[in-house]
Amino acid sequence: MSISLLAKYLPENCLPFLKHWFGDHTIHIKITRGRNSKLGDYRKMPDKSHQITINSTLQPQLFFFVLTHELAHLLAFENYGPRISAHGMEWKNTFRTMLLESISIYEDDLKSIILKFSKAPKANFMSSPELVRYFHIEDLEDESSYLEDLAIGARFIYRKETYIIEEKRKKNYLCLNTDTQKKYIFKPLARVEKIT
Description:
Elements: H1 15-22, E1 27-32, E2 40-44, E3 50-55, H2 60-80, H3 89-101, H4 108-118, H5 129-135, E4 144-146, E5 155-158, E6 161-169, E7 172-177, E8 183-186, E9 191-194
Parallel strand pairs: 1-3
Antiparallel strand pairs: 2-3, 4-9, 5-6, 5-9, 6-7, 7-8
Helix pairs in contact: 2-3
Protein name: Transcription elongation protein SprT
Domain SprT-like: 36-97
Pfam family, one: SprT-like
């Protein structure tokens, strides 16, 4: 997929950054249906080309953020060699540089969140509560809540099953499935339906 075909998924004025980052690399970008397990993925292919997959359901600024994350893998491996850790210091420094270089792309209310995130980039998007909240703004009108917004003892529905919050353990929550009586650990920003 050419960079220009990506335009419909991206915010305005970001193509110059992408052209610079793509350089002479052969990159195959696949736009996928929404995946719950990940927003994007990077792989170096056997023929030395690169493959990046990104969910089609992402808002333009999040799409650009995820694409930047995946391109940071490519550039870090190219600049530091194949033996580096996927989300090690080389990747973090590369991602940080790319985020700061392209900060003008983001909306004003998102810039401060990106700047804060860039100080210590996380491998997993869900590990950044501010980013997760920002990109779920439109979803707040539905019936779902973040688990961390519920009280201990509250009942909620997750994937059509009912749970009770038993306790908070460091950052996560121990919850009991009322049907199976099994206990599960939930992240604080899990989207759940509160039972009132």
